[in-house]
Write a structure and sequence with these properties.
Length: about 100
């Protein structure tokens, strides 16, 4: 079972307000999102991970989708204290994701 929580339009701001958070914009019908899910689960389960991961289902949270101008999924947005740092569009291998994130935090 994953430690990654789903957030919604109503809970998004509170969930990303403090610390470093990787936001996974996803959809239940998205094949690449399903392929990325175990990679994110593995990262979240690693005790060395120094950031949280949350998911936003774009179909359930259209306001957050529009706010971040999400045009395709999966899209990952790395945030620190509520501010976006970078965006990664499409699935990536674990090592590539961690390299991109570690360069910023």
């Amino acid at each position: 079972m994953s430690d990654i929580a789903y957030v919604t339009d109503d809970t998004f701001d509170a969930e990303v307000a403090e610390g470093v958070v990787l936001v996974d914009f996803t959809a239940s019908w998205c094949g690449p999102c399903k392929a990325l899910a175990p990679v994110l689960d593995d990262i979240a389960a690693d005790p060395a991970t120094n950031f949280r991961i949350v998911k936003v289902d774009i179909d359930d949270s259209p306001a957050t989708k529009e706010r971040f101008q999400i045009r395709g999924v999966p899209t990952l947005v790395l945030m620190e204290d509520g501010d976006p740092l970078t965006r990664i569009v499409g699935g990536r291998p674990k090592a590539e994701l961690l390299e991109a994130i570690s360069a910023l935090v």
